[in-house]
Amino acid sequence: TWVIGTALFIFASLANFAAFAFAPAALLASLEATQFASNILFGRFVLGSYVSRRMYAGTLCVCSCTVAVVLSFAFAETEEIEYGIDEIIVCFTSTKYVLFICFMVVFAVGLNKCTIYLRRLNQASKTEGFAKTNQDWRTNVEPITYACFSAIFGTQAVIFSKCLALLLKTGGAFSHWLIYVMLVGWLIFVYVWLTRMNDA
């Protein structure tokens, strides 16, 4: 079952990648939040898993924000800037972006270390039979650090997808080294993102 689910997820990601050529990235990225609703429905009706009220409330909040984003694009007069190869290179080599990436790398390493540490503590607590109240905060924080680490890679995958879509719209993109850098980067980010989601 998980193979079918992963295959469908990869297919949807590729379709989403193709859609980046036709709509603003801010709109398409927010629409991906609907996966929370599909996860809730799939878990409840297909897998028969228990879905808490907190999960329903969180999903409703996310979907409401997604609707708000879509409506803001529908009623706002926005014009998307079309970047070429030179403009994309300038953006990726700017000091602000380099500093941002450095910060995100440090943040991602910290999140991963924190997740591993909390997981070990939680496993030790279960093994040694500690009181539930002593480990509640750890069991709540571990999924947050795990999801934040995954989100960093998912966000970069979206950025690289949009850049790839823009590059493919320009003539002679395959003769430039940038498209291959973007493709390799996108594959790496998507691989890590999918692996983390599958492990979850």
Automatic annotation (TrEMBL):
Q: What is this protein called?
A: Uncharacterized protein
Q: Does the keyword Aminoacyl-tRNA synthetase apply?
A: no
Membrane topology is: Multi-pass membrane protein
Q: Which InterPro entries match?
A: Mg_trans_NIPA (IPR008521)
Q: Which Pfam families match?
A: Mg_trans_NIPA
Name the keywords, alphabetized.
Membrane, Transmembrane, Transmembrane helix
Q: Which domain of life is it from?
A: Eukaryota
> What does the UniProt entry say about where the protein is found?
Membrane
| Species lineage | Eukaryota, Sar, Stramenopiles, Ochrophyta, Bolidophyceae
Q: State any single GO MF term.
A: magnesium ion transmembrane transporter activity
Instruction: Kindly list the residue ranges recorded as spanning the membrane.
Output: 57-76, 88-111, 144-165, 177-194
Gene Ontology, cellular component aspect:
membrane
